[in-house]
Amino acid sequence: MNFKDSEFLLALLIVIVTALFMVAAFLYWIDVSFFLGPLRFSHWLAIIGTSYIAIGTPVFVVLKRYYPQKIEVLVRYHIYVNLLFFLLVSIHFAVHLGRLFLFFPSLWTGLAIYITLALEVISGFIERFPSTGQITHKINRFIHAGLIVVFFLVIVFHVLLNLGIL
Q: pTM of the predicted model, to two decimals?
């Protein structure tokens, strides 16, 4: 097994752990719905996760341009840390999906954010661990970068809607 294989296995392990946490949150095997200050803990997880991704991704883009000699370290950090923050957002999303129908929230912007992040993770896997060659590197980079733009737009709408501004 070479280093690239171990990188893939670690990234895949984080995705599997994310799926397990989502199932546990959906079925309420873990309680993340308690209040911590004005918001539920699951909301704090989502705020922390999306805030890091929203701040960390542009910082990554800038750092890789200024420090091209450190690209491998920066890319690994970008992959694993973003996957861990995706885990936090996934827990929040699973909790909302697991709510009783009577208390079911409006999911439109939250669903859009989650789908965008999930597609971002998939395109990141394709970017870092190409296997089939069915999608070109150039097209995948365009998709990966474009999804970040969508992510930012939907985050703005999600926040404005939930604050009652829109």
A: 0.91
